[in-house]
Specification:
69 residues, single chain, alpha+beta
Length: 69
């Protein structure tokens, strides 16, 4: 069975530098890329709290796509 894809939309995070990045893939890939984006683009520190916040904002890609339609 294929792992379900997850999605994080940066527009849903409060930020001083708003952006329109959307990251989709496996949960671990999305988490790693979202942390990299948050630290390099938005100046966040890579902390367990940041990782938990990002993980809590992940959506199933199929649900997010259905909401957008």
């Amino acid at each position: 069975m294929a792992e379900s894809r997850k999605l994080v939309d940066c527009r849903r995070f409060p930020a001083e530098k708003p952006c329109s990045i959307v990251i989709a893939g496996t949960e671990e890939d999305v988490l790693d890329l979202a942390v990299m984006h948050a630290t390099s683009r938005h100046g966040h520190a890579d902390t367990p709290e940041l990782r938990e916040q990002i993980r809590s904002m992940m959506q199933d890609e199929s649900s997010a796509t259905a909401e957008a339609a």
